Amino acid sequence: MIFEVQDLAVASPATVSRCGMIYVEPSSMGWEPLKDSWMNTLPPLIEPHKPRIEELFTWLVKPCMAFVRKNCKELIPTSDINLPVALMNIFDSMIDEFRVELADGEDFDEIMAPKDQKIFVDCVFLFSVVWSIGGTTENEGREKFDFFLRKLVDGKVDPSPERTDFDLGPGLEIVPPTEKRVAKAYPKATEGSVYDMHFEKDKFRWTNWLKTVKDEPIREELEFQNIVVTTIDTIRYRYIFDVLATHGKHVLFGGPTGTGKTVYIKQSLDAMDKDKWTNIQSTFSAQTNANQIQDIIDNKLDKRKKGVFGPKQGTRAVVFIDDLNMPMLEEYGAQPPIEIIRQWLDHGGWYDREELTMRKLVDIQFCAAMGPPGGGRNPVTPRMLRHFNQISICDFDDNSLRRVYTAITDWWCRRASVPKDVALKLPGKLVEATLEIYNTIKRELLPTPMKSHYTYNMRDISKVWQGVSMIGEAPQNQLELIRLWSHETLRVFHDRLVNDEDRMWFFEFLKQMVDRHTGQKFDKVFASWDFDKNGTVDIVELRRLMFASFMDGAGAEGKYAEVKDVDALQRLVTEQLVEYNQSGKMRMDLVLFLYAAEHICRISRVIRQDLGNALLVGVGGSGRQSLTRIAAFMAEYEVYSIEITKSYTQVEWRDDLKNVLRKAGGEGSPTVFLFNDTQIKMESFLEDINNILNTGEVPNMFAKDETAQVIDMVTPRAVKAGVNAGSRADLFQFFVDECRRNLHMVLCFSPVGDAFRERLRKFPSLVNCCTIDWF
Predict the structure, then answer these.
(1) End-to-end distance of the chain based on CA atoms, in angstroms?
(2) Phi first, then psi: what are they for 745, rounded to 5°?
């Protein structure tokens, strides 16, 4: 028997003592043999350039890898063989120009001049180095790598092993090629880093990514959640993904939450030619098991011949797995869902669990997204990661964020007809203030065991501007807009804070932001909230700053507007409670004071937003469920909640979920799904909620006949919306989109004990996809 293991962490002494041990270290073989065999697979037309490619490998790869290992931090660790293989994959995917079929007597030099061929090979190789060896590090590492690579390419790095200019480890000698320069040098550093440069193959030159697309304002008729602003990141990551995926390579995007990994991949998959490509999407969470992912993939594949399965004949399937590293480790430290995928990557198939025969899967490939290990995310075995081309998706820099949110505020000002004097002066300053709040709160209010939900990402900035864009009538002056913006930042950042000390800190900081960025004094902006007339507005007085969409009419007619008269608000809420009790629903005997009115406004704001979900955190009896019922009643939404009995199991839970999804997606009626943590009989309930928050569906929940039923329910609406009625996949996607639009999850959790903290760690969507309100 031969065992091949990574380490002996789970081997018993008895096993170890009975086996002879051979330790194989990675450096003894190195990556050169892989390169030699890869060189033999290159197209014949590139033959004259092989000596040059060999020289480029010798000159650039070792120094660049040594530099990354010594000076840069990787978001997701890679092995030394991984990086050169990634380089070969990118290079291989970008040389289609050398794969043309020549007619008899035709000379390739007539199609592409020899001088251009040299430029092409050199620049594509450099591009591949940047996005393989330099593509796995974070922002700080990218700045260092940019500086080093420019120096290396210009021949300004000391080649001797005794160098002092850069730390590349001991004994590394740099061997420059015979032609000391690359055929086409990078533009000056002032035009952008090497990561900002794209090699235009048809023009044989380097161009900044942003110059490759036209800059157009956002169309006014778009809804907020459908807006995509083109930034340098959206262009380059989609380009790299498209190049690799269309050439059959497995791609892995790694990076912090909210950086757009999933969006880039989904956009690219949606843009692929439907006649040649299909996609299968799934999201992993802590509770995912190997059988689930195997069933999801198997159900989407057809039988080709005995024991061989694949997508529709003539197409390739891309399997996209989000949150790849979420599954929990089993007893011996493995992650079964990842091991089953690795079985396909290594052996081209897996076993049919009923017939116990090998199923060979053809014409499929994988792409995945994952966050860095830590906080519920686990390190993934390097045996899995070695199959992927890893690209790290870094946090947006402030310039990209500015570009995104300036475009969004410009769209809102045009759409809401904001007066010119307000639209020209203020929105840009408020974007700056929002970015400063976001960067500071991430730095100052860090998560601790007591405050495990203090994690902030890009979605929070979006929620601020989504709230601003909900306003019914455009602000007529600067003060109104500042109040609206202040209210939205309070709802997004302040409502999750757990103690008075943090709330006070945020209040003081918001005060500074208004004073510093808007050119107005905070106390003047909120002068009418100064009830004790002492000239300053304090945090207690600011609690009365509320916006609501039910003051001027119930249901969809109500416009989101500032509450000028708090007493009128309380009277209205009390009247609505009386009406609610008369409507024959579950009677609630409540006394509604200001505190309750505040939370009703907050809940009402979230459930009226597209994709609005709320996580209400407070101890039992703090009014989370009663206030949600009133808010939903005023918005004329249906409230759906489950009833737990002794015999309630996964089957009844799935039936309840199907009912609520049919209501929201099939019938199109706005629905609030109210779920309490005392109803969690099994943790798998949260697994399903996590999926609904993330994608709007629970994979494989509907049987084939039930899928046909919901498709029939939505077909008339889908045809009106311009969906292709002949495609069942498009119709089901319309159903899922309707579920996301109409179903609002309101989750009531108690912060007492460890369960809350554990759940937030295992199911990241509870924080990422919900607006948190701490009672």
Answers:
(1) 61
(2) -85, 130
Calpha distance 759→775 (Å, rounded): 19
Residue 724 — very low, low, confident or very high, per pLDDT cuts 50/70/90? confident
Measured CA to CA, the distance from residue 548 to residue 551 in angstroms comes to 6
Contact between 530 and 518 (Cβ < 8 Å):
no
Mean model confidence pLDDT for the chain = 89
Which strand (E) or helix (H) includes residue 351?
Answer: strand 349-351
What's the pLDDT tens digit per position in 310-353? 998 999 999 999 889 888 898 888 899 999 999 999 999 999 99
| 115-164 pLDDT, tens digit each | 999 999 999 999 999 999 999 999 899 999 999 999 999 888 888 888 88
Distances in Å between the Cα of 339 and the Cα atoms of 77, 293, 299, 327, 381 are: 18, 11, 19, 11, 9
Residue written as token pair 């794969």: 99
3-class secondary-structure state, position 679: helix
Q: Output DSSP code: residue 61.
A: I
> What per-residue confidence (pLDDT) applies to 375?
66
Token pair belonging to 704: 């084939």
Q: Residues 270, 274, 277, 282: is their CA dihedral positive or negative?
A: positive
Give CB contacts under 8 A, 24+ apart, made by 724-732: 732/707
Cβ-in-10-Å burial (0-12, 13-18, 19+) of 578 comes to exposed
Res 130: pLDDT: 95
Cβ count near 77 (within 10 Å): 16
pLDDT in tens, 395-431: 888 888 888 899 999 988 888 888 888 888 888 899 9
Q: How many CB atoms lie within 10 A of CB 445?
A: 18
Question: Cβ contacts of residue 178 below 8 Å, gap of 6+?
Answer: 55
CB 257 within 8 A of CB 218: no
pTM to 2 decimal places: 0.82
Q: Where are the alpha helices (DSSP H) in 395-499?
A: 398-415, 420-425, 427-444, 458-469, 478-489
Residue 248 has a pLDDT of 93
